[in-house]
C-alpha cells in the first residue's frame, strides 16, 4: 500500500459530520497513514489511542468566516503545516478533506516530488467557491489538477461533473453510520420521561439555522394537531435560529406541541431517535451562500431505530432516503406536500413499521472504502 498523508484541519475530537466521515476513512484503512490536523480541545488523549499517527498544527479561526483575508491565511498556514511532510518525499498520495485550502496549498508548495492528490467532496465545499467571484478561477484551476475525488453523494459527484471534472476521476463513498452506537436498539422510555405527555412524536435533529426547514414543520402544526391533538414536535439541537422558531411557535399557538430539547448528550441520541414516530427535516438550499445538504446522515441515524423519515428531494438526501421504501422525499418548498406525508405516516402505524424496518436495513449497510485504495501512485 502506498504511503499517505491525510490533511484535515477539522478532525476528531472536534464534533461534526465532516470529522466523523474522515475518521471512518482512517479507521477503515489505518495502515501507512499519517494525519495532519489542527489542534482541538481534548486532542492529547484522543491522539494517543489511535492506530495511525496524528500531527497537529495551529489554524486561524478569528478572521471573518468567508472573507478573502481568511482564505489567504488558511492557504498560507496550510502550506506551512504541509511543507515539512511533503518535502520529505515519503508520501505517494496526499488526501485532503476539501479542495480549498488543502489541495490548493499543496499545489503551491515548491516541492520537487509531489504526491498525487485525492480530494474529498462534501457539497458546500464545491458549490460555495464556484459561486464566489474571487475564488472561482483558482478553484476551477485546482479542480483540473487534482488526480482523484471521493464524493459523499451522487449529488456532490454531479456538482463536480458540472464544474468540469471527468466522471472517471470520481468515486462515491456514502458517509457511514457509526454502527457501534446505532446498531443497538434505543431505549425510548429514557426520553419519554423527559418530555411532556404525548402519544405521537415528530422529531428533527439539526443545527438550528433557517435552511433546515424546521419553520415549515412548525407552520403546519396548527392544522396537523387538530387531527392529532396528542402530537409533540421535538426539535433537538442548538443554533442562532432558535429564538425565531420559539417565537413562531408561540405566535401560532402551538408552543405546547413543540419541545426544544437543546443539545443532545451523546449517550441519549440513539434513545431520542428510538422515541420518535416520524423523523422530518425538509432542508432547503441556500442559494446566497451556496449551502446545501451534502448527504444527511441524520436520516440514517433515524432509520437505524426503525423510524420512517421525510427529507428534501434535492441534494445528497436523495442518496440517504429511498423514496417510498425508507421514507419520503418531498419538495422542501411545498408545505402541503410535507403536511400530506406527515399526516399519512402519523395515521398509519403499519406503514411506519414497514418503512422503519427498511430504514434500519439501509442504515446498517456496510460502507465500501475500497475506491481510496484503488487510487495509488
Layout of secondary structure:
Elements: E1 4-7, H1 17-28, E2 33-38, H2 43-47, E3 53-57, H3 68-86, E4 93-96, H4 99-108, E5 116-121, H5 124-130, H6 136-145, E6 148-151, H7 154-162, E7 170-172, H8 179-182, H9 188-192, E8 200-205, H10 214-227, E9 231-236, H11 242-251, E10 258-262, H12 269-275, E11 278-280, H13 297-304, E12 309-312, H14 317-320, E13 327-330, H15 335-347, H16 349-363, H17 370-374
Parallel strand pairs: 1-2, 1-4, 2-3, 4-5, 5-6, 6-7, 8-9, 8-11, 9-10, 11-12, 12-13
Helix pairs in contact: 3-4, 4-6, 10-15, 13-16
H/E element order? EHEHEHEHEHHEHEHHEHEHEHEHEHEHHH
CATH topology of the largest domain: Rossmann fold
What CATH first level of the largest domain would be assigned? Alpha Beta
Give the low-confidence spans.
none
